[in-house]
Amino acid sequence: MSRLLSASWPGPASAGQGIVEYGLILSLSALLALVLLVVFGGTLSAVLNAVGDAIDAAS
Fold first, then answer.
1. Residue 53 belongs to some domain of the structure
2. Is 22 a member of any domain?
C-alpha cells in the first residue's frame, strides 16, 4: 500500500510547481499588459478622450 501511495503522491520536487506556474502566468500577463499599454497607449488615450467628450456633449 505504501508503494502505491508513494508512486502516485507528488514528491518534494513538485511541491511548489503549481505556485511557480501561477507566478509565471501572472508575470507574463503583467508584461503583456505593459507592452500593450506602451504600444497602444496613445490610441487608447485618444479613444477615451473622444468618449469623454461625447459624454460631456450629451449631458
1. yes
2. no
CA distance 38 to 25: 20
pLDDT at site 14: 73
Separation between Cα atoms, residue 24 and residue 48, nearest integer Å: 31
Q: What is the mean pLDDT of residues 25-38?
A: 97
The C-alpha atoms of residue 33 and residue 36 are separated, in whole angstroms, by 5
Residue given cell 507566478 in the structure block = 23
Structural domain of residue 58, as residue ranges? 34-59
| HSE-up (13 A, CA, CB side) for residue 8 | 4
Neighbours of 1 (CB within 10 A): 5
